[in-house]
Amino acid sequence: MSTVYDCSRPESRASGLSAAANTVRAGGLVVLPTDTVYGIGADAFDSNAVAALLAAKGRGRDMPVPVLVGSWSTLEGLVMSVPRSARALIEAFWPGGLSIVLPQAPSLSWDLGNTRGTVNLRMPLHPVALELLREVGPMAVSSANRSGLPAAATAGEAEEQLGDSVSIYLDAGPSGEPVASTIVDLTQGQPRVLREGAVPLAELSEVLGVEVEPAS
């Protein structure tokens, strides 16, 4: 049985965040608000929980799960190195709607799907998400919808699609315009945009000082 917590009320928000943190630590799934759309999340280092997340979405390992972090400093332990281009983008757009793909640290024992040695990272601009992430650490988070269906802009829409596969729903009201994050790949030297979204290409180009184009 799922439980929904109204995060617009301080007491319910505190209870919901505590329940969500306990659920994540126990290997369960939670739905949380972000600054783009609602996400379904699990402990990034619990392979069984990540597998359950993919199953809840009806999604295969060929579409690996991104990782959300609660602070810039968390990034250092997750990637092989943080190049100058990544630092510039982080300073300009984090927290916010930009996801950055980098080579993962080889020592990490996680299984996010068929990542080919990379990890897709983002720091969301949402107080509820940030509070949960700072409590439990990096989370594997994907849009809170069944594969092929529209991303959820409310906790209710997420619950309609995911039901009891998720233990805790943190309801912080509508997410606003349901625009996904922009994904930029920095693993090949030249920046490549894998998905256009919340951050325009022109703004990426301005920060990096080079013309950034979509991946072919």
Automatic annotation (TrEMBL):
EC top class, as a word: transferase
Compartments reported by the entry: Cytoplasm
Domain YrdC-like: from-to ranges: 14-199
Gene3D superfamilies found in the cross-reference section: DHBP synthase
Keyword vocabulary terms for this entry: ATP-binding, Cytoplasm, Nucleotide-binding, Nucleotidyltransferase, Transferase, tRNA processing
EC nos: 2.7.7.87
Matching PROSITE patterns: YRDC
Reactions catalysed: L-threonine + hydrogencarbonate + ATP = L-threonylcarbamoyladenylate + diphosphate + H2O
Single Gene Ontology MF annotation: L-threonylcarbamoyladenylate synthase
Similarity remark: Belongs to the SUA5 family.
PANTHER family referenced in this protein's UniProt entry, alphabetically: SUA5, THREONYLCARBAMOYL-AMP SYNTHASE
The name this protein goes by in its record: L-threonylcarbamoyladenylate synthase
Species: Saccharopolyspora cebuensis
